[in-house]
Specification:
201 residues, mainly alpha, Arc Repressor Mutant, subunit A, Tetracycline Repressor, domain 2, 2 domains, 69% helix
């Protein structure tokens, strides 16, 4: 409903403005509604808490971005667009991602990315191909989402100084197996030559 979405977006923008001067953990629901001129009941009609609001805002903005902002045929274009969006909302996402407690944006983004990978695999009918199970798809989605979240968090915590899209060359090398074979393709005797772990402590 347009009216409901307008109310949610007004609350999200109120939180964004407050986060320019306060950390997310210090902001209360009362602060958010007072800043925008709404009542607490209005807030709780739409959201469970401020973290639910943060997650809704990310999902709404990112879904719009992925479906209308750019073509999805190129990882370079996707990462460049994501970078531009995060930079434009630097304060909000830096502070929101600093929170690591329950219902955190970090966890929400991880699940969001994992579900995109899994949905893409299902659309390609991978379960019908020999040797690929639903459990395989779930693990692969979890693995890839964890890897991408690690890159995003390192980039955000580093002040977004680098260009995240520059990582695409390395990602391509990983995906085509060149780096995987380097890391995990060692001969068995090389692994055997490693010193045993220290178990005395």
């Amino acid at each position: 409903m347009p009216g409901s979405n307008n109310t949610k977006m007004a609350l999200a923008h109120s939180l964004q403005e407050l986060m320019t001067t306060m950390p997310l953990e210090k902001i209360s629901v009362s602060d958010i509604v007072d800043h925008v001129g709404m009542g607490r009941n209005t807030f709780y009609y739409h959201f469970e808490d401020k973290y639910d609001l943060v997650n809704w805002y990310f999902q709404t903005e990112m879904t719009h971005f992925l479906t209308t902002g750019i073509g999805l045929g190129s990882w370079q274009r996707v990462l460049t667009g994501v970078e531009e969006y995060f930079r434009a909302n630097r304060v909000f996402y830096t502070k929101a991602l600093a929170y690591t407690g329950q219902n955190s944006l970090r966890s929400f983004i991880f699940e969001f990315i994992r579900d995109i990978f899994m949905q893409r695999a299902l659309e390609c009918n991978l379960p019908e191909q020999e040797g690929v199970s639903a459990a395989d798809i779930h693990f692969a989605g979890t693995f890839l989402a964890g890897a991408l979240m690690g890159v995003i968090m390192q980039w955000v915590e580093g002040g977004m100084a680098l260009h995240i899209a520059d990582y695409t060359d390395c990602v391509n090398k990983i995906m085509n197996g060149r780096l995987f074979s380097t890391f995990f393709g060692s001969r068995e005797n090389e692994w055997a030559a490693l010193p045993p772990p220290d178990t005395e402590n």
